[in-house]
Amino acid sequence: MIAPLNSGGRADELTARLTEAIQLGLVANGHRLPPEREFAEQLGVSPMTLRDAIAVLRDRGLVETKRGRNGGTFVTRSIEPDETPDRARLAGLPVSALRDICDEQRAITSLAARLAAERASDSSVTKLLALVDRMDSAATRGACMRADSRFHIEVAIATRSERLTRREVSLQAETVGLLWLSELDEAEAVAIVEEHREIAGAIAEQNPTRAQAVAENHVLQNLRRLAGLHLKLVEGEEDRS
Q1: Rounded CA gap, 126 and 76, in Å?
Q2: pLDDT tens sequence across 15-49
Q3: CA torsion, points 69, 73, 77, 78, in degrees to nearest 10?
Q4: Could you give the domains of the chain?
Q5: Which of 40, 58, 186, 208 has the greatest number of CB atoms lying within 10 Å of its CB?
Q6: What's the predicted TM-score (pTM) here?
C-alpha cells in the first residue's frame, strides 16, 4: 500500500507516503521497518532519499532508530493523534475546496464499493464487517480514525485494483483527521458507523448497484459534516476575536 515512487524519488513525496501509512495505522505501532537498502529498493528510491525521509519522520516523532543487535528503525506513532493541525487545516479550507476533495472521494469510494461487491472474497467481507464493529466500539478519536480509514481501504483492497487502493489511501490520509474532531456530534458518529454497515452489507450481498449508491451517499453526508465542522470552527475563531 506504500506505492513505489514514479517521479524520481523525491524525499518530500516519500515522507508524505510514509507519514500517511503510519498515521492511518497501515504500519503498526512498534513495527520495525525493513533494512535500509531493501526498503529503498521496494520503494524505488535511493538509500540517500530514504535516509532523508526517515530523518524527517524521526524529527516528527513517528519513528525512532535503535542501535545494536536488535536495533533498526521502529514506528512510534502516537495512539492519540493531535487534532490541532486538523482543526487548523479544516478552518482554513474554503467550502469549495472541501467540495473538490469530496468530488474525488465520491468517484473513488463509490466505484470501489461497486467493484468490491462484484469481486470481494469471503475473507474480505469478514474483515469489513469486523471493522464496522471495531468502529462501533471505538472509544477514542484515534481508534475511530483508524477503523474508519481502514474500512475504506479494505473496500478498495477488495476490488483487487492497486491504483484504486493507492488513491483511497491518499484520500483517507487527507480527510479522516478532518472528520473525527471533538466537535463532531455523537449522533453523527453513530450515523457514520451505520453508513459503513450499509456499505459492508451491500458488498456482502454482492449488490453492486446498492453498494455504489450507499457509498456515494456516505461521501455526500461526510461533505455535509465537514462543511458543518468548518463553520463551527470559523465561528469559534470569530467569537474569540
Answers
A1: 29
A2: 877 887 887 778 888 899 999 999 998 888 889 99
A3: 50
A4: 11-75 (1.10.10.10), 84-240 (1.20.120.530)
A5: 40
A6: 0.82
